[in-house]
Design brief:
By secondary structure, the chain is mainly beta. It contains no helices and 30 strands. It holds the Pfam family NHL.
Length: about 375
Amino acid sequence: MRSHPLFRRAGEFAAAAILTFALAACGGGNSAVGVSSGSTSTTNATVEQVSTVAGSTAWGATNGPVATATFNDPCDVAVDAAGNLYVADTGNHLIRKIDTSGNVTTVAGAGTGGNVDGNGVAAKFTFPNGFALDSSGNLYVADSGNNTIRKIDTSGNVTTLAGSSTPGSANGRGTAASFDFPAGIVVDPGGNLFVADDGNNLIRKIDPSGNVTTFAGSGAQGSANGLGTAASFNAPHGLVLDASGNLYVADAGNNLVRKIDPSGNVTTLAGSGAQGSANGQGTAATFNKPNGVAVDASGNVYVADTGNNVIRKVDSAGNVTTLAGSGAAALTNGQGTAASFDSPDGLTVDAAGNVFVADTLNNAIRKIVATHS
């Protein structure tokens, strides 16, 4: 298996590569192995069918039909109102698109690491990680290797919205602010961006005027609940926003899923803090380096439980179950726990309730559909 291309900062970046991230949040592909059959049902009437949308264990950067397109360590996926998928193709330093006809194209990025604004393939990213779509179709990218937040408008023009190449935790306007390995990002209906500033253990906010502030977290590693900067995180990675304005955070280093209400109050939604794979109610459940979170219209939270190679579900009552994945590191389609993933990272839910997963070490985009049994 190739070593992970993304990684919490350990002081500096090498000139052409980044230090290996022990959390294995996004990584390289490998050949698949089989797993035994099985299934799981999260309700009495449905089973979860897992399929591969695009990509295979062979890594590459080939565009074209989904059957032959290739990716390299995809770390996040987003879906627009029309059903087009956007992929943070992290290992290729690209932003890709899978349209509703099943064709894969490159939206932005030259395919080599760098920090260059410009139109489409003239721009450069360095290990783009999380991203978000606003209601107008603009993409916002957590450009982790460059410690910046980038914007791709609907014409494909890439600009730097906030941050500079120098890691730091300074608040301020636009490029006067600094981040340290920004990972997850989400945009609210008012145009405010929230960023999981992984290396700083913070949740940051960028308002529509480009002003960057600290929304939650003290900066110290910890798992304290509390209001705003009284709370603490440990390598927060994925972010999602529900219809009521609550933020959910994949607090990877703490093995927790956290919730931040609109007033900035931080609580623990699920996870005991211990590493494990136990299902159960709220803090009785355990996770292993959860990296991605998504939420559906009913308020169910989906978690890419990266270290366990599974997708978990936290229902609106706080009950945690395993939605899909056997726990084996492999690329296998099938129902529920008969399917397998390898270090799944980012995920998203479309309007129909389908879950799309950036299956990082498999270099693939997967789909989970709830079907009637």
